[in-house]
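ok so for the tutorial part 2 we go from a plain amino acid sequence to predicted structure tokens. step 1 is just haveing the sequence, like this:
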Amino acid sequence: MACVITTLAVSGYRSLRDIVVGLGRLTVVTGPNGSGKSSLYRSLRLLADCAAGGVVGSLAREGGLQSVLWAGPETLGGARRGYAVEGTRRKGPVSLLLGYASDDFGYLIDLGLPIPQSESAFNRDPQVKRELIFSGEVARPGTVLVQRKGPTVSTRQGRGWSDLANGLSPAASMMTELADPQRAPEMLIVREQIRAWRFYDGFRVDADAPARRPQVGTRTEILSGDGHDLAAAIQTIFEVGDAAGLQDSVADAFDDSRVEVIWEGGLCEVAVRQPGMLRALRASELSDGTIRYLLLVAALHTPRPPELMVLNEPETSLHPELIAPLARLIASAARNTQVLVVTHSTALLDAMTEAAADTLPDEIVPITLRKDLGETHIEGQGLLTTPPWHWGTR
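step 2 — the prediction. this is what the tokens look like for a chain of 394 residues:
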């Protein structure tokens, strides 16, 4: 496996007023409803959108920057001393900060609001105020390799700085606008690392779900986010991936059943052959839980493991008896790719801890979120156990 993301940091996003999360090869995020699990997941997707050029559009779909910002006061000192929380005029600039650090490079982006212009209808659109690419675990002056301040992007040149671009649009990230392999190879490396992240959540499994319908099949090494190419992805694993491991995962969950791909007139469809049955059951006949589990099998047995795979509530619609096989499936995949799981299920956490004990000793990181005065915290995290992080200033 390539680089491992060691730290995720978020400031000013929904209930994440200022949080720094240490990640491992297999990280499991749990917590009660409303504790901030979905906010942590969405913030990571926003970070990924920076490298794909979609962060501004993603924020707009969430209601705009003002709708996703931390809604509480800048400091909670008074509330912690027993005083009522009261609205005050913010002293600092409006800011949404996202960043991560890995074994090799890190990335940080600072999003804010534009200076209002009377003739513009886009005064609420978020703008990129600052971006950094750095080496090591913390963005300090001596570790920054590429920096963007306003419209100017510069790269380190010996002891000084050399401009890469001027006049960059405030609506665009430098990650999508620039490519200079000679003067800023780090930017290309980080961009491709982030673009390789994969997110799976909300697979449809109803009667009209795309995964249940026959589809035109082409070689599919990466399962799509909606799972419409499930059959093609499984066929690809049969041909160029770990077919035996895939079948083992299916048999582990469904009493020695096997998955098949039925081809008719250029269309392909997934099916499951169960012991004692005279024919394979086609996708339209399978239960919601069976289809969801097959989607997770295809995603986690990908022939092209990503830098990071994020699963949001993978246990949804699964029978309790499938929790242990799912845990073993995820733990097995984590040997080849970094996996982050966001889940309501403590049973899944316990099962993954047991499954990872043999294959990933000391590399599973359980994180429990809680909320205090509207702010998300990590249970048990203190000053000495919080990963190092430095946001810097505009």
